[in-house]
């Protein structure tokens, strides 16, 4: 997966006037970032962004046409969890390692909700804490409480993960065809999303949207 092949597919979508996903009005990107601007973000948040993601920022654009409601520009919004209630800490801790290597959900909370136990509120606070997504930045929103995350610290560095705790779906990696087939990098994930547009896969059959 390369920047060149991504640009070719974007050009193909434009040339053939292929129908875009409902959440996308047009193929448009924000201005690119230069190396100094990217380095400043990395220094500020004490991280090293994946090379592929940096290439996208510097050669294609800083946010815009992309999965969900579009790619989020690199900046303050990248490290905020918009689902956190006003007054609570909503900034992701980019200095800690991302905690997961495989899909995660919180079984104690599920049991407590089914049984109506008194510790539900405490378990809910743990489950929805921004601490659950330390070591990542936000790259897109899907709506309905779903976030697209790019891991910037830990063993999953450079991989894209989904956070669907908003509807109790847990946190899980974007994979090629199953959990054991490998986790996707940013460029792999973005190109897979483009592929489904180019192939005009029906929306209800798409894995990436």
Question: Would you kindly provide a written description of the structure presented here, covering whatever features stand out?
Answer:
The chain has helices spanning 3-16, 35-45, 51-59, 107-115, 120-128, 186-198, and strands at 136-143, 146-151, 160-163, 171-173. The chain has 209 residues and is α+β, with helices and mostly antiparallel strands. The protein has a single domain (3-203), classed as 3-Layer(aba) Sandwich (SMI1/KNR4-like), CATH 3.40.1580.10. Strands 1-2-3-4 form a four-stranded antiparallel beta sheet, with no helix packed on it. Strand 2 and strand 3 (160-163) form a beta hairpin. Helix 1 (3-16) runs parallel beside helix 6 (186-198) and helix 4 (107-115) packs antiparallel against helix 5. 27% of the residues are buried.
């Amino acid at each position: 997966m390369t920047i060149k092949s991504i640009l070719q597919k974007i050009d193909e979508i434009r040339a053939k006037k292929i129908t875009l996903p409902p959440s996308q009005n047009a193929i448009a990107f924000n201005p690119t970032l230069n190396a100094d601007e990217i380095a400043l973000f990395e220094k500020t948040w004490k991280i090293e962004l994946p090379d592929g993601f940096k290439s996208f920022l510097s050669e294609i654009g800083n946010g815009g046409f992309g999965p969900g409601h579009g790619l989020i520009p690199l900046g303050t919004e990248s490290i905020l969890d918009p689902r956190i209630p006003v007054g609570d800490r909503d900034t992701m801790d980019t200095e800690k390692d991302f905690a997961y290597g495989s899909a995660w959900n919180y079984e104690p909370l599920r049991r407590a909700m089914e049984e109506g136990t008194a510790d539900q509120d405490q378990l809910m606070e743990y489950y929805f804490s921004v601490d659950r997504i330390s070591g990542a930045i936000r790259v897109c929103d899907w709506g309905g409480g779903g976030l697209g995350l790019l891991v910037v610290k830990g063993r999953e560095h450079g991989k894209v993960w989904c956070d669907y705790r908003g509807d109790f779906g847990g946190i899980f990696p974007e994979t090629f065809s199953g959990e054991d087939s490998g986790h996707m990098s940013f460029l792999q994930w973005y190109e897979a999303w483009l592929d489904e547009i180019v192939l005009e896969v029906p929306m209800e059959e798409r894995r990436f949207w």
